[in-house]
């Protein structure tokens, strides 16, 4: 059971609106349970690196089914380091991404990059809130 | 001079509508002149690989400023092969992507993957047509 | 808005003159806002590794819009480590590079390698000073 | 015995002047006998890819001590393909680079990218001609 594109687009628009309201410029990525991109946007002026970082945070979040902030403490465990290496850096255990749930199931994740990490997470949360 | 997110979103929606009308399921990526993602969507049911392939075609198109179909004849030249290797495969010289112009300037490219290559290109063209 | 080649060449010559005055042998790289090379020189006797390191520092500096010295504290954060891995090591968060500004805009960066890190940075600064 | 930076800079300026005279926009790289960069420039408006391609052609030329055009016929030999793979694509056996000689010795190479391959080579030749 995976997030639909319609849901992902709704989340992206809500997150973008929230970022704009906060005066922030970010990239926002929504991934499916496998960590693959469903949809993403990079706001005008956001640096190139925000796109892969937003996706990397979302990938980390969905790979564990928890907010990526919760993974920071284990960023240096051998498992995490090897997993990151296997994926050539594309998993990023850093605050700014949240899993997207349908009931008890993780159906995807949203990751944000470009602002302070706690702002990235707030923007992600605003996107998810639009679903309910 | 790069494509704006608003333009990229408009293109994506038009391409998606055209794909739906054709009964096709694809991923669609819009990149800036450097080949970095500006926005992308993957339609429900499109395989994971369509996302990186759509972006890879767009990257190829924008790197040469021509439709990616025009690059197929030189896919085996030493320059193209090395460039692809340097970019770890992320440049894909295969039909399905078109440069996006503003006057004479290449401001980005759109790449599509998931259908037959000529259908991918038709979907890309429909997206660009929505800009004018 | 990117640095011009004429500006980059002027910076390189000023940095080289400053290095010579200090009795130091270095490589100096100037990159555009995306981190791509605009111009570089490696002084006679500077080891091969100084060339990619100079560019790597400049890439790090421009990717964050700050002196690369400011990035050393976060060299071990998950984001930085993953970004470096994604770029196959070509981003180097170590002192010796400075962003190049035009007004408020980052138009590129200069990176230096071959001397002590603080000397590298001094040589970079001398190059930028020649612009004004 | 390697090319000096002063020689490399003279070659770059002569090649740049020749390209300008031809109305062409290119990147030009000078490497030492090991294939490592000594100096490079990318002219305003030349795409990012011209920088690594110019260097890759120069690397190929100096690795064999012949014009890179002479390597095109063996681009598909197992040795060349493996060598390119070992260097992750950074050796490019395509026209546009020439070895730089001092007497009988190869002291470096110049590679050009951005125009038609035979124009790239002409620009390279103009640079070398300035040395004598």
UniProtKB/TrEMBL annotation, chains A, B, C, D:
Signal peptide span: none
InterPro entries: GlcG_carb_metab_protein, PduO/GlcC-like, PduO/GlcC-like_sf
Protein name: Heme-binding protein
Spans traversing the lipid bilayer: none
PANTHER family: SLR1406 PROTEIN
């Amino acid at each position: 059971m995976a997030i639909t594109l319609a849901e992902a687009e709704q989340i992206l628009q809500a997150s973008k609106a929230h970022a704009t309201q906060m005066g922030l410029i970010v990239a926002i990525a929504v991934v499916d349970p496998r960590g693959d991109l469903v949809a993403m946007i990079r706001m005008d002026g956001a640096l190139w690196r925000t796109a892969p970082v937003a996706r990397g945070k979302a990938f980390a979040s969905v790979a564990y089914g928890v907010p990526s902030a919760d993974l920071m403490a284990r960023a240096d465990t051998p498992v995490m380091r090897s997993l990151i290496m296997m994926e050539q850096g594309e998993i990023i255990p850093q605050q700014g991404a949240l899993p997207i749930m349908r009931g008890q199931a993780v159906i995807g994740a949203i990751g944000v990059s470009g602002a302070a990490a706690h702002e990235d997470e707030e923007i992600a949360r605003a996107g998810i809130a639009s679903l309910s």
